């Protein structure tokens, strides 16, 4: 079922959807670790499960002559197959993330065709970040530079217009989600500009928005107000990441350019070890989730990062 149809149904029934996000296994590892992460969460009846996409990384190896050899490797391959495997094993809808970075337009169209043949009806369309080892995002020479271009491509296919090969009247039927940033995307000069481009993604065919993680609900409430004022009417699903390690206190703001609320920092400073941080992360996640549900969010999307225990504890308290 399409995510947008689930969202519409849930809104009619005044329900909040539960969903979570997983990473494909690291190259060389079994898919069993993913199943182990999903198993405890199935009792909460997830509306859909997202699987992230990971672009190639540039690896620089020093040679005996002092020069560097550059090689390219995809560290977490298999998103399409992981989605299909989860769908078959659990009979749950999966949402593969599709990124622009590292792919030509034709390769992207090929992946979309594969997804359609597998019966996967949902996509989260993203630009992707710079490849590890590269300073800034650079599009593939024959690829897309913005998620909006990708959304436009998917919409064309939904209208029966494939960019490559012959058009026979066959149409895909993807529901498309896109990313939104309550604390602004790191490349955007300000939130208004970022929201202007978010609106463009919606106008080109996105059905719903999933936000970047945030730890202060007020940031989400303000973001939704500003999106609505800008004329964005689609559902905006909050993305929640339970804090699990002390390291994340510096890592997450650095990577995602977000702020932790002072109250959370103060509480985290009192924690002796990661066990206590994890407990705090669960308590904070429950508090955040309860307030968001009370506000009337369409769904709660959890960044599980392959570890389901915190998400399970939060889901147990709120659903
Ligand atoms: P875009 O919407 O293209 O925006 C990127 C930047 O360009 C923004 O600053 C925007 O304001 C600006 N912009 C947009 N359109 C234009 C335009 N036409 N002209 C000028 N500027 C413009 N990354 C992965 O690699 N794999 C994943 O699986 C993945 N999953 C994610 C899931 C979620 C829910 C979120 C929030 C992020 C995810 N990311 C993932 C990270 C994401 O790829 C990065 O944040 C990336 O830097 C931006 O992606 P985007 O789709 O928001 O880009």
Automatic annotation (TrEMBL):
Enzyme Commission identifier(s): 1.5.1.54
CDD domains hit by this protein: MTHFR
Domain of life: Bacteria
Keyword NAD (UniProt): yes
Cofactor dependency: FAD
Cited InterPro entries: FAD-linked_oxidoreductase-like, Mehydrof_redctse-like, MTHF_reductase_bac
Keywords: Amino-acid biosynthesis, FAD, Flavoprotein, Methionine biosynthesis, NAD, Oxidoreductase
Keyword Ribosomal protein attributed: no
Cellular component aspect of the GO annotation: cytosol
SUPFAM superfamilies hit by this protein: FAD-linked oxidoreductase (SSF51730)
Name of this chain's protein: Methylenetetrahydrofolate reductase
Gene designation per UniProt: metF
């Amino acid at each position: 079922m399409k995510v947008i149809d689930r969202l519409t149904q849930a809104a009619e029934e005044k329900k909040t959807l539960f969903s979570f996000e997983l990473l494909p296994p690291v190259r060389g590892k079994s898919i069993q670790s993913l199943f182990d992460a999903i198993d405890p969460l199935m009792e909460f009846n997830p509306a859909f499960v997202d699987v992230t996409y990971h672009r190639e990384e540039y690896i620089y190896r020093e040679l005996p002559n002092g020069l560097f050899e550059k090689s390219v490797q995809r560290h977490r391959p298999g998103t399409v197959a992981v989605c299909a495997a989860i769908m078959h094993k659990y009979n749950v809808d999966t949402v593969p993330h599709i990124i622009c970075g590292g792919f030509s337009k034709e390769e992207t169209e090929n992946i979309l065709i594969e997804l359609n043949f597998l019966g996967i009806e949902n996509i989260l369309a993203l630009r992707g970040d710079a490849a590890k080892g590269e300073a800034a995002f650079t599009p593939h020479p024959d690829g897309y530079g913005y998620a909006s271009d990708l959304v436009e491509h998917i919409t064309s296919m939904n209208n029966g217009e494939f960019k490559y090969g012959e058009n026979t009247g066959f149409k895909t039927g993807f529901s498309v989600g896109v990313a939104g940033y309550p604390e602004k995307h790191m490349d955007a000069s300000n939130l208004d500009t970022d929201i202007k481009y978010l609106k463009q993604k919606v106008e080109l065919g996105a059905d719903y928005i999933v936000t970047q993680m945030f730890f202060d609900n007020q940031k989400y409430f303000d973001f939704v107000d500003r999106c609505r004022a800008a004329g964005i009417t689609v559902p905006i699903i909050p993305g929640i990441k339970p804090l699990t390690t002390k390291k994340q206190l510096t890592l997450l703001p650095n990577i995602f350019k977000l702020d932790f609320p002072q109250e959370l920092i103060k509480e985290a400073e009192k924690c002796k070890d990661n066990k206590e941080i994890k407990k705090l992360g669960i308590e904070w996640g429950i508090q955040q989730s309860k307030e968001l549900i009370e506000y009337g969010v369409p769904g709660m999307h959890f960044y599980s990062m392959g570890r389901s225990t915190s998400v399970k504890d939060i889901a147990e308290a709120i659903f």
